[in-house]
Amino acid sequence: MHNRRNVVEIVSTHIVREGGGFRVRRPYRMGRVMSPFLLIDEMGPVDYGPGEALGAPWHPHRGFETVTYLLDGRMRHEDSAGNSGELNPGDVQWMTAGRGIIHCEEPHEDFLKTGGRTHGFQIWVNLPAAHKMMDPRYQEVPSSASPTVEKNGVWARVIAGECMGVTSSIDTVIPITLIHVKMESGSRLIQSFEPQLNGMIYMFGGEVNISDELRVNSQSRIPGLGTRQVIRDGELALLSEGNEIVIECNSSSEFLILAGPELNEPIARHGPFVMNTREEIIQAFTDYQNGTFAN
Q1: pLDDT tens column, 79-104
Q2: How far apart are the C-alpha atoms of 226 and 187, rounded to whole Å?
Q3: CA 108, CA 78: separation in Å to the nearest integer?
Q4: Total domain count for the chain?
Q5: CATH number, domain at 121?
Q6: Is residue 280 part of a domain?
Q7: Which among 33, 179, 246, 260 could bridge 211 via Cys, Cβ 3.0 to 4.6 Å?
Q8: Parallel, antiparallel or unpaired: strands 228-232 and 235-239
């Protein structure tokens, strides 16, 4: 028997400035309520004129992973280990900072000259205590190698996890689902989940209905929505437990499906460092100041 997930909470978003001053849309409540996701930042969409594009100059990370997924624009990156590369539309960079890395993320030189639209996501994934000091690593997946699937008016890019029979090749430290979905009017998606994983949906275009024919109105935890729960643009929906969700669309929509385990560990966080104790945060600053951070 399928135990269907429904929406237990809607988290709204606000606009903040990050890096060199670029604009991101971010859900208000982060950290434990979204475990293992620490941040879900939607970068843009913003249209830059020539010479206006912004990025994130050199900065350190320790204790977590950053996932960068570009929809529009062109970016480049460098790090303290001598790695470098670029991101184009549809590309994914999965960076595991582990014990420490220093890197920069900037507009590509050609894009900076011409300007254009930038839109994408950077998502922070927490690491369990046992893996916080692991060796850093990069996984870069170009658009051409990033698996997609399209059926019955539903298109999906499977960045991590599985959707409609297609599985990602990304190697994740902990079980992660990250799927970019576009739905046409009148389409329907039944997405499976591992029951033990926290699940959520971030809408960034249009709206969808979450259907649960088995649930009666009096059981709804969002008053007035009955058996159809609506998720709208700019909202993050936290989902109940269960092994599947039914998503229906009355007009074109676009969203991310995310899932991961409840780490159930203390979170000590200061800027770009995410550890388990205050002492570990102090040690991260000491290592960074001593020049031993990324060794």
Answers
A1: 888 888 899 999 999 999 999 999 99
A2: 20
A3: 12
A4: 1
A5: 2.60.120.10
A6: no
A7: 246
A8: unpaired
